[in-house]
Amino acid sequence: MHRSATPDVVVVGAGMVGAACAEALSAAGVRVLVIDRDGPAAGTTSAGEGNVLVSDKEPGPELELAVASRAEWDVVRDRLSARVADVEWEAKGGVVVATGDPEPLTAFAAKQREAGVDARVITRAEVFELEPLLTPRVTIGVHYPDDAQVQPVLAATAFLTAVRERGGEVRSGVTALGIRQSRGRVVGVETSDGDIACGAVLNACGPWSGAFSAAAGARIEVLPRRGMILVTAPLPECVRHKVYDADYVGAVGSGDAELQTSTVVESTRAGTVLIGSSRERIGFDETIRVRVLRELARKAVGLFPFLGDVQVMRAYGGFRPYAPDHLPVIGEDPRVHGLWHATGHEGAGIGLAPATGRLITEQFLGLVPHLDPAPFRVDRPAVVAA
Amino acid sequence: MTAYQRPRAGDPAEVGTPPTFEVTVDGQPVTAQAGQTVAAVLMANGHDTWRTTRIHNRPRGVFCGIGACQDCLVTLNNTADTRACQRTITPGDTITTQPLTLLPTPGTTTPGTTTSAGAGSQDPVGAGVREVVVVGAGPAGVAAALAAADGGAEVLLVDNGRAVGGQYNRQLPEEFAARRPDRLQHEWKAFAAQRDRLLGHPRIAYLPETSIWALEGLRLWAQTGPADAPGRQPFAIDAKAVVLATGAYDRVLPFPGWDLPGVYTAGAAQALAKGQRIAVGHRVLVAGTGPFLLPVAESLLGVGAQVLALLEANTLKTVRAGWSTDVLVAPSKLREAAGYGALLARHRVPLRHGWTVLAAHGSDHVEAATIARLDENWRPLRGTERQVDVDAICLGFGFTANLELAVSARCALGTGPDGGPAVSVDANQQTTTAGHFAAGELTGIGGAALSAAEGAVAGAAAARHARSAAQPPLRTTLDPAVAKGRRFAAALAKAYPVRDGWKTWSTAETLVCRCEEVTRGELEAAADDRGLQDGRAMKLSSRAGLGLCQGRVCSRTVAALLAGPGDLPKPSMKRPIAVPVRLRDLAAAEVAQPAVTAEPAGTAESAETMEEQ
């Protein structure tokens, strides 16, 4: 049935994180098979904005991962072959603005600078030079030249194309049902298309990682958080950076179930303006909530008043995977030798994917990791439920 | 410029003399007639196109003519993205043909626009729960509203249009003061009687010019007022039962040049002629498949256009074999066809079976068409190609159901008789979502008679559901009129199938997605280079279906082109925001809806959601 030789690693999940891990592993010579119950980039990856941000994270392990990943993005993009290399990468920079007391934002930026982030406090006048259409209520801004944007579906599918070019395989419509073990180590993966023998399995199922880990007999705690984004009709150039309200920073790390929104406004190459994003802990509920859309609209118009007359063309949303302690889960499972996890990146999976792929590869091959993997290890109390 | 307004003299509808007033087009004064759409004003004054596309600067004007495709967007009173075909002109309007780069700047909106357009749109239905809300006032919706009201329910009928009738019974604007509107409609008397009964019914409230842009369970989010105008405050309508009768729009298949100005959907030609007395051209080709092309040709003749030919893509053999599959429906259909045949003969319009348009030629506008003979599978027969001088082409290859609200309501979809997606319903027209009923074309393309029959069943069942949900459903077996209509629909689909040969009509350079200007070659490259099949990821990497019309025009084409042999194409109809809403209005959504009344429905929705998990 299976033409190729036994893969070293079966990556379960062809989203951004699975694709980045498969790409990094295959670049290091590891034989990879990627399976997905749907198809490439069909889940969370096609439901996000494409943020590659260093601006929204407090100093700590996640910021270190973000900074490393921002650098790794350049490395990985250079490895792509020409026909898929255009992933709409834009190193456009981010502008965070405060409309009230400037103090919390400048203090936050000062802490980030200490951690090595290029975070430049700019005056009100300088803010309007960068973004002329912002609300006059802006009091101060911080410019983050390193923030970037990428089109996540193009990026993930380009990574998978690279995997195929290196002899790896990508199979759509194959659901992973569990793993096969022999003497405490992985020898294969059970799928809807039969068993596949392999040396290791990487769980990159995003919000569905918890479910797959349970099916594999080594449950990790990863939960879905819903995010919605509004898309406007195409416009001429009007928003030049990733622009967001200073209150974004507060929302990312929060564990409140109720609706949170904070404005992130940016143009895409297609001319549309994306307005994100909301955060709700409501399980895998896909129903539309006008209340959520209204909050996004209200904050966007507050930030960019000219958007008021613009048509919202569509809304889309998806589920972001998060661990209870809000850190990614990257590494080998301590309970089953050969079962690996790369998940829990919450709303930052696109940005954090390349460094995650590199970290997984380094650990898989026993190399010295390029940054300390300990904060992301699987056997954290919050992740490995009793 | 080729479109023109039919002269009043000799118009069989005996159009009166509507009031005229001045508006401006790009600063130039132009005379408009009360009741005209913005598109009609432009077309009557020498404009066939009024914007250019974002990527390749291609000229665009009306294409679908019924508000679905977004090709005809224009800047009206300094507000961009207004559908010219849907918006009625008012005195003093300023029309700006959209330049390619229009940077919106704060304060450029006409002062007072918001309040004037918003006048009268402050929650026109008032608080409280409606027993039955019917969405769409075509044959299905009208029948549903009447049946529900006759069943004792308080009914609210909402519709995008300015008058009941939908696309099928499209009426001239009242302002045209036509003395003989009956001459433009078949079965006018029956329609007029039904319309009058509906408008006078004590239990039916009718809300025209109202679009439903989102559905949250049994809560409908609406906007009332001039199409796409800013300042139409969204309001919520809570219902005990909803009847979706949202109809369908024309299906068009791509070939080289199908995006040239002068190429219209058959429905657009029909709507402009019947509803506005505008002819899309002087020398017109009508092409596609299905009996709907006959009344389109008739309407074109009625506004004085020369119809060069009516090209039916299916061979006569296919049509005959299809109809004869059901002895019950064949005779009535043949009688109707004979009537049209006589009309076409009188006007010397050749009706050619097994022919179609394979290419449209011209630089800024259609000047000629290549037509060719097709085999039974719609593959062109070599050597039969001919070039014909034309200034307009009208296309209709059946219809695509308007499913976005049904999808938002989480109604399960199946496949209609024509192979397209359709809402699954039971003998009561009940969908798989409790309290949501569906009637008409969105349950499967079958024409006006079936729509009306389904509407009557849906309305009665919805009333019963709303007034006493505990009662058993009204029907356990199919209504005889619905059963007969479905037999007709099945035979119709066999007589006028869309055959796969159309996939050979386009080339790598042919546009598939008009909005984002994605060619067939680009679509197929995305599939090959990135290993993608149809779906969200495909949309995002090719951009086909991501533009202003949100895939209404291209999603079926894309799904069919990407489907493997034997696969049933399943285009996505998921559009949580069913029609565009302006951000400031969306931001104001709660103002008309106090939180107190919002709570009970919200709770009900959560319960329903949990049940489904």
State the distance separating the first and last CA atoms of chain A: 39 Å
Radius of gyration of chain B: 23 Å
Radius of gyration of chain A in whole Å, from Cα? 21 Å
Helix content of chain B: 25-40%
Number of helices of chain A: 9
- Contiguous uncertain segments of 5+ residues of chain B: 104-121, 591-613
Tell me the strand order in the biggest sheet of chain A. Answer: 5-6-4-14-15-16-13-17
Low-pLDDT regions of chain A: none
Query: What share of the residues of chain B does DSSP label as strand, in percent?
Result: 15-25%
The coarse silhouette of chain A is: globular
Describe the oligomeric state of these chains in a short phrase.
Answer: heterodimer
Strand content of chain A: 25-35%
Largest sheet of chain A: 8 strands, mixed
Count all strands of chain B and give the number: 31
Chain-averaged pLDDT of chain A: 92
Describe what you observe in this structure.
The complex is a heterodimer of chains A (386) and B (613). With 386 residues, chain A is of the alpha/beta class. Chain A has nine helices and 19 strands. In chain A, the strands form four sheets. In chain A, strands 5-6-4-14-15-16-13-17 form an eight-stranded mixed β-sheet. Chain A has a six-stranded mixed β-sheet with strand order 8-2-1-12-19-18, sandwiched between helices. A three-stranded antiparallel β-sheet of chain A has the order 9-10-11, with helices on one face. In chain A, helix 1 (16-27) runs parallel beside helix 9 (349-365) and helix 2 (61-79) crosses helix 9. Chain A is globular, with a radius of gyration of 21 Å. The two termini of chain A are 39 Å apart. The model of chain A has no long low-confidence stretch (mean pLDDT 92). Chain B is an alpha/beta fold. Chain B is 29% helix and 23% strand. Chain B contains 16 helices and 31 strands. In chain B, the strands form nine sheets. In chain B, strands 9, 10, 11, 12, 13, 14 and 28 form a seven-stranded mixed β-sheet that branches. Mean pLDDT of chain B is 89; it is low at 104-121 and 591-613. Chains A and B meet through helix 5, helix 8 and strand 17 of A and strand 7, strand 12, helix 13, strand 31 and helix 15 of B. Strand 17 of chain A pairs antiparallel with strand 31 (581-582) of chain B.
